[in-house]
Specification:
Elements: H1 3-39, E1 44-46, H2 48-56, E2 60-66, E3 71-76, E4 82-86, H3 94-103, E5 106-110, H4 117-144, H5 151-154, H6 179-193, H7 195-200, E6 208-212, H8 219-230, E7 234-238, H9 239-242, H10 249-263, E8 267-272, H11 275-278, H12 290-305, E9 312-318, E10 336-339, H13 345-356, H14 367-372, H15 379-395, H16 403-414, H17 426-444, E11 451-455, E12 466-469, H18 480-501, H19 511-526, H20 559-586, H21 588-601, E13 603-605, H22 606-614
Parallel strand pairs: 1-4, 2-5, 6-9, 6-10, 7-8, 8-9
Antiparallel strand pairs: 2-3, 3-4, 11-12, 11-13
Helix pairs in contact: 1-4, 6-8, 10-12, 13-15, 15-16, 17-18, 17-21, 18-19, 18-20, 19-20
Bound molecules: adenosine-5'-diphosphate and zinc ion (ZN).
């Protein structure tokens, strides 16, 4: 059970309990009033003992016993005063009966006294009605409780979080490394600040801006910065929040949100993950999703409904523009699309500077080399990197973040947490040979990357060790020989296992390597036109079926060609594997020496590794620039 649900149930029970209590009070109030009613007939209630004494002293003229034996009404001889007595029927009131008989009191039995008609009506109708009323109140209160299932009752009433952030406090200077996007958005800020300048010359103000880019690249940050720069309120919610369990709620949420935004104009509405609502209608497995379509339609209607310049600008973010419904992208809707991509070297440097502002770095740490070592990192990863490094520095009782902490934080983010070193065992030896295989092949091939580090300290996620190269900024434009050497390097681990331990002893340790090899070889044949099958793309990387469009696999080739593709792929991998094996076999002594050293020190950096290799053989000159860290 989720904690939210638990809290809801606890509240519910508390309320039910208070209801029970208030009902009990009400009922005792009514019974009290009933006895008060009887009292007004000036009948004095006396005690049993008193009555018994009266009977025994022969002062009772007449007595009416109620048939249930619980009460009696007596008429006293002096002045015909009426008294009432509550009896206990347990013993059949034998003593009283005996005394009555002995004194010859006129005794009659009658039905128990009934409350008057009004009170009967009250207790039969009024109390149940009160009960219903109270239940209704409780339900209403529940329905207003935040997080309760009351949304069913209040039909998509705005949640409190729809209230805007008045000041995001984020400025453009906090967003770094994505300057083109910033420039384009500068215009939107001006729209919000001085709308008259644009309307005066008849320019239409944009209604929607779509930010396209992978997660963590700063889309949310950008949207907040627009609001911050223009000094307008910022409404935000995510697409998946729109799509709710209950039919109709999604659409009314949208209506609500836009209404609130219009009341607060000028302002920014930010919708994260818009693909969750704005996906191509009627697509995906099992056809469309009614609820989502209603929500989307409502959003389109709202955006169309903006009169001229309402001052509301919708900023949406997605990393899947390909699955968006084309209706969303039409003019007058999200007609402005801005790509926010992974930052390049320069961009990473800028982002690191922003996040290093509030951190203490040792003087010799250069953000330029950190930027060089982190291609493919998004802004969020870089922020995380510096934070991890700061945590490591604190844990090591250091005053400032040093190079070592940054290097460790990079490994931690890209590969995994460090685990305890392995005990000396045959397994450790095998891992050492596997990694030396990778590292040696990498070092001996001209077009593979430059070795950065080799280690046999295990990492979380079942990683026994790793050998990694210095990342190359020029990724994305790789030559055939670079790809082939990379594949050979990836197969170096298994090659070493086989050469050293024999065919029967090879392990599952290479499965990750094979997956990467399979992907690369397939790309070479089917997309890069780098095989005997010639030029041309035979496949495009297939999108996930569940995410809209792309229901059909995009293979436009015959079974026969498919066969040839498979053979080509195997051929490439085979050739690379032979190369790797040959390199290991030719350098067996070197391999053994490297493994002995690695078993001893557990981690070697590229420089140290190359020094040992150079004692045995010539290392080819690399094209990749070396980064000294
Ligand atoms: P997205 O919305 O694209 O998934 P966010 O805007 O939520 O990414 O980014 C998450 C965090 O990462 C930000 O709060 C910020 O700390 C950091 N970040 C991301 N991109 C940048 C950037 N370009 N400049 C500075 N910080 C960034
Ligand atoms: Zn491997």
């Amino acid at each position: 059970m989720s904690s939210g649900k638990k809290i809801f149930l606890a509240n519910f029970w508390r309320r039910v309990k208070t209801t029970v209590v208030s009902l009990a009070i009400l009922q005792s109030v009514t019974t009290l009033s009933v006895s008060a009613q009887t009292d007004t007939e000036s009948v004095v209630t006396i005690s049993y003992t008193e009555l018994l004494a009266n009977v025994k002293e022969n002062r009772v003229q007449k007595i009416d016993l109620e048939s249930n034996g619980l009460a009696a009404e007596a008429v006293l001889k002096d002045g015909g005063r009426r008294v009432r007595v509550d009896l206990i029927a347990r013993d059949g009131n034998t003593e009283l009966m005996k005394a009555l008989r002995e004194n010859g009191v006129d005794t009659a039995v009658k039905a128990p006294q009934q409350p008057t008609l009004i009170w009967q009506l009250v207790s039969t109708f009024f109390v149940p009605m009160l009960l219903i009323f109270i239940l209704l109140m409780v339900l209403r209160r529940l329905s207003n409780a935040p997080g309760g299932p009351g949304q069913t009752l209040s039909f998509g009433k705005t949640k409190a979080r729809f209230s805007p952030e008045a000041k995001t406090g984020i400025m453009f200077e906090d967003v770094a490394g994505i300057d083109t996007a910033k420039e384009e958005l500068q215009e939107v800020v001006t729209f919000l600040k001085q709308p008259d300048r644009f309307t005066a010359v008849g320019a239409k103000i944009p209604k929607g801006v779509l930010l396209i880019g992978p997660p963590g690249t700063g889309k949310t940050l950008l949207a907040k910065a627009i609001a911050g720069e223009a000094g307008v309120p910022f409404f935000s919610l995510s697409g998946s929040e729109f799509v709710e369990m209950f039919v109709g709620v999604g659409a009314s949420r949208v209506r609500d949100l836009f209404q609130k935004a219009k009341d607060n104009a000028p302002c920014i509405i930010f919708i994260d993950e818009i693909d969750a609502v704005g996906r191509q209608r009627g697509s995906g497995i099992g056809g469309g999703n009614d609820e989502r379509e209603q929500t989307l339609n409502q959003m389109l209607t709202e955006m169309d409904g903006f009169q001229g310049n309402s001052g509301v600008i919708v900023v949406a973010a997605t990393n899947r523009p390909d699955v968006l419904d084309s209706a969303l992208l039409r003019p007058g809707r999200f007609d402005r699309q801005i790509t926010v991509d992974y930052p390049d070297y320069k961009g990473r440097q800028e982002i690191l500077k922003v996040h290093a502002r509030n951190k203490k770095l040792e003087e010799n740490v250069s953000l330029e080399s950190v930027a060089r070592l982190t291609p493919g990192f998004a802004g969020a990863d870089l922020a995380n990197l510096l934070n991890e490094a700061a945590i490591l520095a604190a844990r090591r009782y250091k005053e400032a973040i040093g190079e070592l902490e940054i290097a460790d934080a990079i490994d931690r983010i890209t590969i995994g947490l460090t685990m305890k070193p392995m005990l000396d065992s045959s397994k450790k030896r095998l891992v050492a040979y596997h990694e030396v295989g990778h590292a040696l092949v990498m070092t001996l091939l001209k077009n593979a990357s430059l070795l950065d580090k080799i280690t046999i300290v295990p990492r979380s996620g079942g990683i026994g060790g790793f050998a990694k190269g210095v990342p190359d900024e020029e990724y994305g434009l790789e030559s055939r020989s670079q790809i082939l050497d990379t594949i050979t390097m990836m197969l170096g681990g298994r090659a070493a296992e086989e050469v050293v331990f024999g065919d029967a002893e090879i392990t599952t340790g290479a499965s990750g390597d094979f997956q990467q090899v399979a992907r690369l070889t397939r790309l070479m044949v089917t997309q890069f036109g780098m095989s005997d099958l010639g030029l041309g793309a035979l496949e495009s990387e297939s999108g996930e079926v569940f995410l809209g469009r792309n229901m059909m696999p995009q293979n436009d080739y015959s079974v026969k060609l498919g066969d040839r593709i498979d053979r080509q792929i195997r051929q490439i991998a085979q050739n690379c594997y032979y190369t790797a094996k040959r390199l290991i076999e030719e350098n067996r002594d070197l391999c053994d020496r490297l493994v002995d050293i690695l078993l001893d020190v557990e981690t070697l950096d590229g420089e140290e590794f190359r020094k040992i290799v150079a004692e045995y053989t010539k290392i080819p000159e690399k094209k990749t620039a070396s980064v000294k860290f």
